[in-house]
Amino acid sequence: MAKAQQPLWLGGAAASMAACFTHPLDRTKYCMQVLSSKQPMLKALQTFAIRDGIRSLWSGLSASILRQTTYSTARFALYDVLARQVQQKTGEKLTAGSTIVCAGIAGGLAGMLGNPTEVVLVRMCADGVKSPSQRYLYSNAVSGLIRIGREEGVGAFTKGLGPNIVRSILMNVSQIAVYTSAKRQLLVNKLMPFSEGVPLHIAASLVAGTVATTVCAPADVLKSRMQSAASAEGKSPGLVKIVRESLRTEGPGFLMKGWTPAWLRLAPNTVLMFLFMEQLQRLVAAKTL
Length: 289
Description:
Blueprint: H1 10-34, H2 41-52, H3 61-90, H4 96-126, H5 141-151, H6 161-188, H7 198-228, H8 239-250, H9 259-284
């Protein structure tokens, strides 16, 4: 029997709450991906805090929250709708294959919807490691959206769209499908038995966060570099040019650049997101995961 529908806002609310805690790591991850230097993540975090102050670590938070209220709201809401449709037709619980398909479709559509806010987020986060002349200096996310549309045209909102859609599909599949599968496996595991509760949610989300970081790393790096690249003579560098230049200067390892800060950000973010989501689902009595 299909489970009750959760409120459409629930996924975005949980993701936004998690982002408030993990934004400093998120910002550092984007800076690491945009930079060509190999400075350790914790050293970079310390440098930003000393140079610009502790508050600077939350620079771009408005863009992060705006992104979650669009992208994450869409990906979880669409997944819930698709999952319920499949459950209603089959009358059974979702199989692993059905979960992957539903999560992939929802992730791809959400990636397209959330790309404009992703562009603003990457730019606001990367401003801290750029020279003053190259900084965008958006006062907030909404101002950034308006300025991009006015100064560069609506086409700028499609920067990095291809890698972002791929990343969104991979992210949604690796988070939702892995989290759901890990929960099921941990519940029936006889070596270290778990029961429904916070410890189970933390363990399953840690697995999902690790898998998601590794799977999404290449698309995430390419997306960030495309979206942070400034237009030259009205034309932005394409994916092929960015890959070619990155391979020439950094080697193939650039595709995993920033993995550690990405994991340090995504693992706790995934844990907090699913913890908040499970508690919110309890409150609205609409458990779907």
